[in-house]
Design a protein that fits this description.
The complex is a heterodimer of chains A (115) and B (115).
Chain A (H helix, E strand, L loop, with lengths): L2 E3 L4 E5 L4 E3 L2 E3 L5 E8 L6 E7 L7 E2 L2 E6 L4 E6 L8 E9 L7 E2 L3 E6 L1
Parallel strand pairs in A: 2-12
Antiparallel strand pairs in A: 1-4, 3-9, 5-6, 5-10, 7-8, 8-9, 10-11, 10-12
Chain B lengths: L4 E3 L2 E4 L5 E6 L6 E8 L3 E9 L2 E5 L6 E5 L5 E5 L8 E8 L4 H4 L2 E2 L3 E5 L1
Classes of the chains: A mainly beta (115), B mainly beta (115).
Chain lengths: 115, 115
Amino acid sequence: AQTVTQSQPEMSVQEAETVTLSCTYDTSENNYYLFWYKQPPSRQMILVIRQEAYKQQNATENRFSVNFQKAAKSFSLKISDSQLGDTAMYFCAFTTIQGAQKLVFGQGTRLTINP
Amino acid sequence: KAGVTQTPRYLIKTRGQQVTLSCSPISGHRSVSWYQQTPGQGLQFLFEYFSETQRNKGNFPGRFSGRQFSNSRSEMNVSTLELGDSALYLCASSSPSGQKKAGYTFGSGTRLTVV
């Protein structure tokens, strides 16, 4: 069974700082997808960034980038120039390329950006 | 393009009652999946429907059921409600091609409170 672990329940940084959220996962699959989702108080889960395991290049989306270490099964999210609107719960999620159409989520990291 | 719509937003039910939640996916999306989010258990996969067929099911009791209609709208039903069923229920839809790679689009959820 696949598992996803986020070891930081809460983090807090000042606006404009850079913050890195950690995520590790466990799987015997070789090909899969990894995602970071953001859940603000509005409750809607918003896709931040995705990574395909068969691509070595780390994904980037504007201020968001990942550090994907396949051998270490690590998938961290870096937020640069953090903004107040980045305040939210962040979830790391995993899904296999084949097999069940479902996401396995980590427990989440509550990120607060302070003015 | 309209997003994933979940109704109702909030629901209060009494123990022993049953409840039906609704999810309308993005137009053209044929896969709909459901997740339960609680503070203790986090996000857990309930089931996934594609073209009116349940393809995958999570580890939940038979009191949790669902269905999908020909227009891809989905409903989930919980019978004989228990206090532990209080949760945020999230629905997600994905496109028919490259489903997993593109990620999933979530609705804002239905907050169910069982008293």
